[in-house]
Amino acid sequence: SSGINAEYGGLIADWLGRKWLATGFLLMTGLVNCSAALLSSYDTFIIFRAIEGFCIGGLTVTFYPLLIEYIGAGARNLANVVAQCGYGMGMAFLCFAASYITSWRAVVIATSAHLFFVALLLISNIPESPRFLLKNKKADEAKQVVKIMASWNKVDLPDEFEIIQTDEPCEQERAWKLFTYSRYTCSATVAQMFIWFTAALYFFALSFNMNDVLGNPYLNLAVTGVMEVMINVCSYFFIDRIGRRWCMLVSFVLCGISVGICRFLPHENLHYTHFSVKTFWVIFGRAVGGFIYSLVYLYSAEIFATTVRSSGLGLCVFAAQISSLIAPFVIVINADNANVVYTILFLFCIVAFLAAWILPETANVPLPSTVAEMDAMKYQNYSIFTENSPLITGDVLQGNKDKEGYLAE
Predict the structure, then answer these.
(1) 17 Ramachandran zone, left/alpha/beta (phi>0; psi -120 to 50)
(2) Is 267 helix (H, G, I), strand (E, B) or coil?
(3) What is the mean pLDDT of residues 60-87?
């Protein structure tokens, strides 16, 4: 249900907007979760959990585009780091709550009640995305949003301030255009879907496989959450300089190395040293996998155009949810042969590395507004050490303007 609503919720968000849809999904998630904790029927509980997954899928593809579309190219990395650190801290808090609170009902309520407060903050403080408003011919509303943002940042705008659109308001584009516009947009979309699939499979498979390593599974999972926060904070200092693409490639190499080493370590409790080494590599690989899972949100949001950003993320989240359905079967496979699990993850890391190789660099580049501008990103410079990397050259933009009849940012 989460994957299905991720796709259809993305289509609706690209049509109606991000803010109110995200607010509705937040309130529904909190209400359904708290209600599920009071149920006594298992069948009814499963239905409520399906509704919760439906809401979370829609929340993913509405809230994150809303966040990214507020931020300029130079600050998107910081915004992503702050947002994704919350995931690691939430994982650590959940492990703490699950290990000390004996009632699962209390755990569910303790981890869901705050959603009502978050929804209230969203309603009262966060306006609609100005980029979405501009692309839907609502320049006056976008102007009001910019004034609000200026007041937050203590910037004085002149009285004659006006928003000038450098291109004509574009018609609404549908998600299937990502597959039909050009060979590149199709390849980039499929590559991102596979990367999300691999990131989710790796992340959840190692999370469910914590019983294969030495120590308290609650503590091990909490440690990986703390490590995710540390890796995300450290990434702030190099992800803009090195670039999203190379960070993704290096991360998949590290993930492949970690599961490759675990592949040759024994499963049986033969010697404490073997299990201590295996514990380190599983926790390390799980933390790096969490970093990839957070990076793909930023990377995909910067690749997909404004007109299809929520829809494109919906496709990726749908692929990730499919792999999250497969991940629990890791426990079944692990019971017979743990080495098979690590071999499968190693092979997926190799293919995901090749998929990430064809994607463009997006660091310090304006967000594409249309699918045509997204297609122009294939010309971007892959060098990570040039002064102006990875900006598109003016000649390339002019050539695409003549070819496609549009003006890129």
Answers:
(1) left
(2) coil
(3) 78
d(Cα 157, Cα 122) in Å, to the nearest integer?
25
Q: What pLDDT, on the 0 to 100 scale, is given for residue 224?
A: 75
CB 300 within 8 A of CB 313: yes
Count CB-CB contacts under 10 A for residue 121. Answer: 11
Residue 358 and residue 187 in contact, taking contact as beta carbons nearer than 8 Å: yes
What separation in angstroms does the CA of 396 have from each of 300, 307, 401?
22, 22, 9
Q: What is the mean pLDDT of residues 346-374?
A: 89
* Residues present in the chain in total: 409
Is the C-alpha dihedral spanning 221, 224, 229, 232 positive or negative? negative
CA dist 114 and 133 (Å) reads 29
**Which structure tokens are listed for 322?**
């499919």
pLDDT at 267 over 70: no
Q: How confident is the model at residue 378 (pLDDT cuts 50, 70, 90)?
A: confident
Cα end-to-end distance, the chain, whole Å: 36
Token readout for 56 is: 């979370």
Instruction: Name, in order, each residue with C-beta under 8 angstroms of 62's C-beta and a sequence gap of 6 or more.
Output: 9, 10, 13, 18, 21, 22, 25, 310
Residue 74: how many CB atoms within 10 A of its CB?
A: 10
Rounded CA separation 85/248 (Å): 18
Model confidence at 408, in pLDDT bands (50, 70, 90)?
very low
Rounded CA-CA distance 305/178 in Å is 10
DSSP secondary-structure letter at 306? G
d(CA 316, CA 61): 10
pLDDT higher than threshold 90 for residue 56: no
Q: Residue 396: pLDDT above 50?
A: no
- SS3 percent helix, strand, coil of the chain, rounded to 5, is 75, 0, 25
Amino acid 55 reads: C
Rounded CA gap, 126 and 276, in Å?
Answer: 47
Helix (H, G, I), strand (E, B) or coil at 165: coil
Handedness of CA 163, 169, 173, 178 (dihedral sign): negative
pLDDT value of position 383: 35
What distance in Å separates the CA atoms of residue 23 and residue 40, rounded to the nearest whole number?
Answer: 29
Structural tokens at position 102: 């004996």
Residue 138 has what DSSP assignment? Answer: -
